[in-house]
């Protein structure tokens, strides 16, 4: 099922429906399938289409953590917090703030 979904979403890339939502959906499906690198690539495209898409920034941070790239994760969440603040999305802002604090907390 997920492979079919990914194939269908990829088939739409570059077409008239290509945009932030399509790339977010593809990144989400890839991350769920365990392809964090592919997910990060698509999520970066999503935020290029719409830099104010806080959900894409949030998921890009999660994909970056899965890739053990804490610098990229922190950067994504910082951008996501700014995007959420600009749109008044308090919940997304709060979630990414928590993720960022956990990331910055030293591990024992």
Structure description:
With 108 residues, the protein is mainly α. The chain has one domain (2-104): Serine Threonine Protein Phosphatase 5, Tetratricopeptide repeat (Alpha Horseshoe). 78% of the residues lie in helices and 0% in strands. It has six helices and no strands. It has helices spanning 2-12, 20-32, 36-49, 54-66, 70-87, 90-104. Helix 2 runs antiparallel to helix 3, helix 2 (20-32) packs parallel to helix 4 and helix 5 packs antiparallel against helix 6. It is globular. The relative contact order is 0.12.
Features:
Serine Threonine Protein Phosphatase 5, Tetratricopeptide repeat; mainly alpha; 0% strand; 108 residues; globular
Overall SS class: mainly alpha
Multimeric organization? single chain
Count of alpha and pi helical runs: 6
CATH fold category name: Serine Threonine Protein Phosphatase 5, Tetratricopeptide repeat
Share of helical residues:
over 70%
Q: From N to C, what is the helix and strand string?
A: HHHHHH
Could you give a short account of the major beta sheet?
A: none
Low-confidence stretches: none
**Number of structural domains:** 1
**CATH level 1 name:** Mainly Alpha
């Amino acid at each position: 099922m997920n492979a079919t979904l990914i194939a269908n979403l990829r088939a739409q890339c570059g077409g008239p429906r290509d945009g932030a939502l399509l790339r977010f959906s593809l990144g989400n499906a890839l991350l769920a399938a365990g392809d964090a690198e592919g997910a990060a690539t698509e999520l970066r495209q999503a935020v290029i289409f719409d830099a104010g898409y806080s959900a894409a920034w949030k998921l890009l941070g999660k994909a970056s953590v899965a890739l053990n790239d804490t610098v990229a994760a922190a950067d994504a969440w910082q951008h996501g917090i700014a995007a959420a603040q600009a749109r008044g999305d308090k919940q997304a802002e709060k979630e990414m703030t928590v993720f960022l604090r956990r990331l910055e907390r030293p591990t024992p």
